[in-house]
Amino acid sequence: MEKALARFVNEMESEGAPISHESLRDQAIAIRNALKITNFEFSDGWMSNFEKRFSFKSRIIHGKAGSAVTSTQDIQTQISKIKEKINEYGLSNVYNFDETALFYAQVPRRTISKTPLSGQKDDKTRITIALACNADGSHKHKLFFIGHAAKPPCFGGKTGEQHGHWY
């Protein structure tokens, strides 16, 4: 029965189909019933030992790796296509855009004291700052501030325009 279940796991893995513990247990029950095995329960302990016996491990699926370009040749081809497209434009029309976060409400991580202090949960309140400029440096855009408040506390009660920024 376990060999049949291990074959099922291997087939699903080769097809790229994810398998949860619940679906594995359902498949084990179907195999048990097909083989007319009685008095066999699929406990968490059995599941853990089954995975160990067949060198299976529960893993986290990260992103969409299956759709990503993976070979060095494919990557070089894509880079060449991008460069060709960029070369259709003058340097003054090619921009670089990047963003970073300003965690303006976060307290320092270090302190000076006589006794140890307990840590605090980090305050994740932030404003996203975006920067853009063209390739020849002739146009450096003002900073973009991306937030959710009309007058963020870090702006001291003023709007972004009053500070000379886009918000």
From TrEMBL:
One of its GO terms (molecular function) is DNA binding. Keywords: DNA-binding. The keyword 4Fe-4S does not apply. GO terms for cellular component: nucleus. InterPro entries: CenT-Element_Derived (IPR050863), Homeodomain-like_sf (IPR009057), HTH_CenpB_DNA-bd_dom (IPR006600). Pfam families: HTH_Tnp_Tc5 (PF03221). Residues 1-60 form the HTH CENPB-type domain. PANTHER family: PROTEIN PDC2, TRANSPOSON. This is HTH CENPB-type domain-containing protein. It comes from Circinella minor.
